[in-house]
């Protein structure tokens, strides 16, 4: 009998598990709420409503004279699809304990299963000085180094609490490529008549932008990251509107590696000046997107190669060296790990090489060399324009 058979197939759309690039953390000084949020506990938030369910709302900030809801609300305003792991600690905690390997930041990271890619640190602590913040940068980098050795690479955003618009501290003189310092403010928050916060920095806004960006994208991309909205209508630094700060002072802050809000003549909106990290501009990891790209590449390669750890590796019976087939197998696995980043435009290219002459029998070590070609960022656009005479 004639027969037409139609078989429904699956897996053709290329759907993948959602990436965790937007997974972020917020560590902040806070106050416990009866029946709600508690100190030294980690909470996973997927919307601002989750914060309100814990008793964290605008009144929480006002009544306690701090800013927690503000940062959470800004994070989700900028990235409604983000995931935020929140941990509140006693505001009187010593700053060094915020970023110690045995402290709150480490617990936050562990509670999230190492999935957090970037963390904002907010103090809500009276008496914090500019020098305190700058002094914390190196300790924060030490934590980032520690996290990386435990397969949990991440970027840290410190609140530039109390940093003056005329600061002499140069972040580019520090060797902290995984740490950024935000000093931009929302003037409606800094100069709020009920809950004034003249020394705060808008960490939640920057954290939301970073989590929303693809790993290779600068948060200073004008077309994509107009951050104006909500109560953020007038940006400032050091409780001073940006419009009242002269261009020389803004350029000096930019040259010192701070991140803040800026305006552009001829286009409406509020933007970020750049995506600096606290290291020399000549460093490979001088910008947040460079770090996030490499962090993702490391995580992807690790996930693919880890199952092969401890596996037997067949060698040539005469030379003791790995066969071409084995070498190719490992190279293909490493390439496969990064192909998604390449196809999605997060990197420009990649190269994987395994030296077939290495003595794996004698060393039990297999060395894999991976080169990642990053995407560029148009930080400067130079246009030459003038009149032309068709008759000449």
């Amino acid at each position: 009998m004639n027969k037409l058979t139609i078989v429904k197939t699956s897996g053709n759309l290329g759907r993948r598990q959602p990436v965790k690039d937007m997974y972020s953390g917020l560590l902040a000084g806070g106050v416990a709420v009866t029946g709600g949020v508690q100190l030294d506990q980690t909470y996973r938030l997927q919307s601002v409503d989750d914060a309100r369910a814990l008793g964290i709302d605008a009144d929480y900030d006002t009544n306690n004279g701090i800013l927690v809801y503000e940062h959470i609300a800004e994070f989700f305003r900028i990235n409604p699809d983000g995931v935020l792991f929140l941990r509140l600690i006693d505001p009187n905690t010593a700053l060094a304990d915020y970023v110690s390997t045995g402290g709150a930041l480490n617990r936050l990271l562990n509670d999230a299963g190492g999935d957090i890619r970037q963390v904002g640190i907010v103090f809500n602590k009276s008496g914090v000085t500019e020098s305190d913040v700058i002094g914390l940068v190196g300790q924060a980098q030490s934590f980032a180094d520690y996290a990386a050795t435990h397969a949990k690479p991440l970027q840290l955003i410190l609140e530039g609490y109390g940093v003056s618009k005329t600061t002499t501290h140069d972040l580019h003189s520090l060797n902290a490529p995984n740490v950024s310092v935000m000093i931009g403010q929302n003037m409606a928050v800094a100069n709020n008549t009920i809950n004034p916060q003249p020394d705060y920095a808008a960490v939640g806004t920057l954290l939301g932008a970073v989590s929303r960006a693809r790993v290779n994208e600068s948060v200073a991309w004008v077309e994509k990251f107009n951050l104006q909205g909500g109560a953020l209508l007038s940006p400032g630094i050091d409780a001073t509107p940006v419009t009242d700060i002269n261009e020389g002072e803004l350029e000096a802050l930019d040259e010192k590696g701070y991140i803040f809000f800026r305006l552009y003549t001829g286009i409406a909106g509020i933007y970020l000046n750049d995506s600096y990290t606290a290291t020399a501009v000549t460093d490979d990891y001088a910008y947040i997107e460079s770090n996030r790209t490499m962090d993702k590449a490391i995580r992807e390669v690790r996930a693919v190669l880890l199952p092969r750890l401890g596996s037997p590796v067949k060698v040539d019976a005469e030379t003791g060296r790995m066969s071409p087939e084995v070498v190719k197998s490992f190279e293909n696995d490493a390439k496969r790990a990064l192909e998604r980043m390449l196809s999605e435009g997060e990197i420009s290219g990649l190269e994987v090489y395994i030296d077939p002459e290495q003595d794996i029998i004698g060393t039990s070590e297999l060395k894999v060399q991976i080169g990642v070609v990053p995407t560029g960022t148009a930080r400067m656009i130079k246009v030459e324009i003038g009149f032309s005479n068709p008759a000449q």
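The chain has two domains: 23-290, 311-392. Residues 23-290 form one domain.
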